[in-house]
């Protein structure tokens, strides 16, 4: 979870407390969040909310992080993506302020995401006059949601109190920030009876990220968090927002997805991500297209400069790889997607140039250890890689990657197994 760092109203940095999303070895599926564990977490969060604010919350909501199986840097080019919601989530307990209470237009935020696991990270702002740059660090994510909702016609957003907890690792490319935004908008949609549908909430949280946080992200992450289904990936057309679930029966095929968090933090608010997006937009314009979605895979790119041509080529071929992956999954060939994951990473490394030595080492080592496929996932410049492995080999693969990192002098990675989980919703 990354964000702006120089703002007027401040919140303490939201770093991961011990035990929240960082693990020395790979988690096995039995260790992952389940519905029962979510209920326990929700009860604990509600109790902590009462300690912090002096009364019970109106409810508790969760929103998962996501792993993008394939389709990287295609979403903001109106392309195709294939993410799945993971069984790690942001959870918020929320209570609307009553009109009779002091300062009913104030928003109080608190997060258990503090370095020692006990001291709360806090933020406060007032809704009137809320503008980009007014709230710092993790508080910018719920504030951005408030900002876009308050700008809608016929929507009155009252003040509220919110307590956040999350098991999505920060800076790992698993959409920790979007999980916070989605949990916030789902909670407010319910409490204010706004009647927003899932695609509508995805668009609004994208606006919050783009306009308030200042990160030029696409719409994939929010969509996966909102529309994910257990045991399935989400095939999303980022131009129309048409979404279909595609079966991803990993366990039935004796497979698992191992996440390798390099612990090299990345930020969508940094310049590299925006530069790639600008390059794609320039390439589309030079080719006479509104977006790269309109450019055929085999288009002549000779009129483009070398760098722009490489960026465009990645997007065109990545869209084709998404379609091929969907076709193989629908045919029941889960292991057959491995070579497409490998090709995706090569394109991201060579053409889009968003990988890094740690990501390359994670992918290469996982493949050498017998992974069916592997690639970086997320925006790049750090973050995580995923490896499609035999279910019984996740531990051995993780150990091989950890040893390779140690030999290279890198910080030890965090490794864990994830499974496709349900999208955002009310827990309590």
From TrEMBL:
Cited InterPro entries: Galactokinase, Galactokinase_CS, GalKase_N, GHMP_kinase_C_dom, GHMP_kinase_C_sf, GHMP_kinase_N_dom, Mevalonate/galactokinase, Ribosomal_Su5_D2-typ_SF
An example Gene Ontology CC term for this record: cytosol
Region (Disordered): 1-37
SUPFAM superfamilies reported for this sequence: GHMP Kinase, C-terminal domain (SSF55060), Ribosomal protein S5 domain 2-like (SSF54211)
EC category name: transferase
Record flagged with keyword Magnesium: yes
Domain GHMP kinase C-terminal: 329-405
Domain of life: Bacteria
Entry keyword annotation includes NADP: no
GO biological process, one term: galactose metabolic process
Stretches with biased composition (Polar residues): 1-13
Domain GHMP kinase N-terminal as annotated: residue spans: 153-229
Segments forming domain Galactokinase N-terminal: 48-95
One term of GO molecular function: galactokinase activity
Keyword set, alphabetical order: ATP-binding, Carbohydrate metabolism, Cytoplasm, Galactose metabolism, Kinase, Magnesium, Metal-binding, Nucleotide-binding, Transferase
E.C. number: 2.7.1.6
Family statement: Belongs to the GHMP kinase family. GalK subfamily.
Protein's recorded name: Galactokinase
Organismal lineage: Bacteria, Bacillati, Actinomycetota, Actinomycetes, Micrococcales
């Amino acid at each position: 979870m990354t964000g702006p760092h120089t703002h007027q109203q401040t919140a303490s940095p939201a770093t991961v407390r011990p035990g929240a999303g960082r693990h020395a070895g790979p988690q096995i599926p039995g260790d992952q969040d389940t519905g029962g564990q979510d209920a326990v977490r929700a009860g604990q969060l509600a109790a902590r909310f009462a300690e912090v604010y002096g009364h019970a919350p109106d409810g508790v909501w969760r929103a998962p992080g996501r792993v993008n199986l394939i389709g990287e840097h295609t979403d903001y080019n109106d392309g195709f993506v294939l993410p799945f919601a993971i069984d790690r989530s942001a959870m918020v307990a929320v209570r609307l302020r009553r009109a009779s209470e002091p300062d009913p237009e104030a928003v109080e935020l608190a997060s258990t995401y503090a370095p020692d696991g006990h001291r709360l990270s806090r933020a406060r702002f007032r809704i009137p006059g809320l503008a980009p740059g007014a709230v710092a660090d993790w508080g910018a994510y719920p504030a951005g949601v408030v900002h876009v909702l308050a700008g809608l016609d016929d929507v009155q957003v009252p003040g509220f109190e919110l307590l956040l907890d999350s098991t999505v690792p920060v800076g790992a490319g698993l959409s920790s920030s979007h999980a916070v935004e989605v949990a916030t908008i789902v909670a407010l949609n319910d409490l204010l009876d706004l009647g927003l549908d899932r695609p509508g909430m995805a668009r609004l949280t994208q606006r919050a990220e783009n306009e308030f946080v200042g990160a030029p992200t696409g719409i994939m992450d929010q969509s996966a968090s909102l529309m994910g289904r257990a045991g399935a990936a989400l095939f999303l057309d980022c131009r129309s927002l048409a979404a279909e679930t595609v079966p991803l029966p990993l366990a039935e095929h004796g497979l698992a997805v191992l996440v390798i968090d390099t612990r090299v933090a990345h930020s969508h608010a940094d310049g590299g991500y925006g530069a790639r997006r600008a390059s794609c937009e320039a390439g589309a314009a030079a080719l006479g297209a509104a977006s790269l979605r309109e450019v055929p895979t085999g288009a002549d790119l000779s009129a483009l400069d070398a760098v722009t041509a490489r960026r465009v080529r990645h997007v065109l071929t990545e869209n084709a790889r998404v379609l091929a992956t969907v076709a193989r999954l629908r045919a029941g060939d889960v292991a057959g997607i491995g070579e497409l994951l490998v090709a995706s990473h090569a394109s991201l490394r060579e053409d889009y140039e968003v990988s890094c030595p740690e990501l390359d080492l994670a992918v290469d080592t996982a493949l050498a250890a017998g992974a069916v496929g592997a690639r970086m996932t997320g925006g790049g410049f750090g973050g995580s890689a995923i490896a499609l492995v035999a279910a019984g080999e996740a531990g051995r693969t993780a150990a091989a990657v950890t040893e390779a990192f140690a030999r290279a002098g890198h910080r030890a990675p965090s490794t864990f197994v994830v499974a496709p989980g349900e999208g955002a919703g009310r827990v309590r």
